[in-house]
UniProtKB/TrEMBL annotation:
SMART domains recorded: Transket_pyr (SM00861)
Protein name: Transketolase
Keywords: Thiamine pyrophosphate
CDD domains linked: TPP_PYR_DXS_TK_like
InterPro entries linked: PDH/Transketolase (IPR051157), THDP-binding (IPR029061), Transketo_C/PFOR_II (IPR009014), Transketolase-like_Pyr-bd (IPR005475), Transketolase_C (IPR033248)
Keyword Flavoprotein part of the UniProt annotation: no
Keyword Disulfide bond: no
Origin superkingdom: Bacteria
Source organism of this protein record: Methylomonas fluvii
């Protein structure tokens, strides 16, 4: 039976709503951002729900204070606002504080990459992976479908420390029909190839799978879904990549600006893995054109056709 695609946020919020009936230590804080399931949380648990309004800096400080009182806190807002509008508060009240006090704060950012496509660059989010992974004690998760997003709930409540959950605002096709990926590894191998592996996160996993299928049997391409951007199992990932000549990173964020590609350049160097890395991300600066997500992706070099051309040329270059 095919699993019906659902919004990432709704699946996680439903898990939170159910758990709040059993665990009086779960608290929810919103920055004037709603959903039908959030209405249920507010109605059923009014003493453990706060809407701070359009005030993300307050959102972070209130969440930190609740966490110091022993609550497991979920804070919820649009991705660019919950990461960039309040970055100093995140750094001081969450990242620094968590070094000296045990806290559990989970930031849910909805609107990864171009998923708020018609809202333009003010509401799109290409910098968050760079910013959030810059803090060494922050956990950063980037799911590719709602099944993975829902599975993150257990990680949120069981592991202390500050976390950022990067959710897509659109309903994406289901990738994990049977079971979610093993979050202890932080990544999932979808297919093993021979010479080149595509390592993607979030929405870009859908592009990676499509491109790998288009390569066909002539160039058997591997695909890995990187869910945990900060704390994946380095030993296991090094083992998975050991047989490849080339690695292609795909992210819906700026290329060469400290995101997943920078993390992988560092990883390959520290592990002394002799792979050539092709980093594919958003090229250029901010754009104000209107269009579909697919059209915008092609314009900035991360659409399926653009990626297909770059990967084919990359494979060819490894032959020389």
């Amino acid at each position: 039976m095919t699993t019906k695609p659902l919004p990432m946020r709704d699946v996680l919020l439903d898990r939170i709503w159910q758990a709040m009936g059993q665990d009086a230590k779960i608290f929810f804080v919103s920055a004037d951002f709603g959903s039908p399931i959030l209405d249920k949380i507010r109605a059923d648990f009014p003493s453990r729900f706060v809407n701070v309004g359009i005030a993300e800096q307050n959102l972070i400080n209130v969440s930190a204070g609740l966490a110091l009182e022993g609550f497991t806190v979920f804070a919820y807002a649009i991705a660019p606002f919950i990461t960039m509008r309040c970055y100093e508060q995140i750094r001081v009240s969450l990242a620094l504080l968590s070094e000296v006090r045990p806290i559990n704060v989970n930031l849910i950012g909805v609107g990864a990459g171009y998923s708020y496509v018609v809202s333009g660059p003010t509401h799109q989010c290409y910098e968050d992976l760079t910013l959030m992974r810059a803090m060494p004690n922050f956990q950063v998760f980037s799911p590719a479908d709602h099944v993975t997003a829902g599975a993150l709930f257990e990680r949120c409540v069981s592991a202390t420390g500050p976390k950022y959950l990067r959710f897509d605002a659109q309903v994406l096709p289901v990738i994990y029909e049977q079971t979610a990926p093993d979050l202890r590894l932080g990544f999932h191998v979808h297919r093993r190839g021979e010479r080149v592996c595509l390592l993607a996160t979030g929405y870009m996993l859908h592009t990676a799978l499509r491109v790998a299928a288009q390569q066909g049997s002539e160039h058997d391409v591997g695909v890995i879904d990187l869910v945990d951007i900060a704390r994946f199992d380095e030993d296991r990932l090094a083992d998975e990549l050991a047989g490849y000549q080339g690695l292609v990173s795909l992210e819906e964020g700026f290329s060469g600006r400290g995101g997943v590609d920078a993390m992988l350049f560092d990883f390959l160097a520290r592990r002394k893995l002799p792979l050539t890395l092709l980093n594919l991300g958003v090229n250029g600066g901010y754009r104000f054109e209107l269009g579909t997500r697919a059209e915008l992706h092609e314009q900035v070099g991360i659409g399926p056709e653009a990626v297909q051309r770059r990967v084919a040329a990359f494979i060819q270059s490894l032959s020389h």
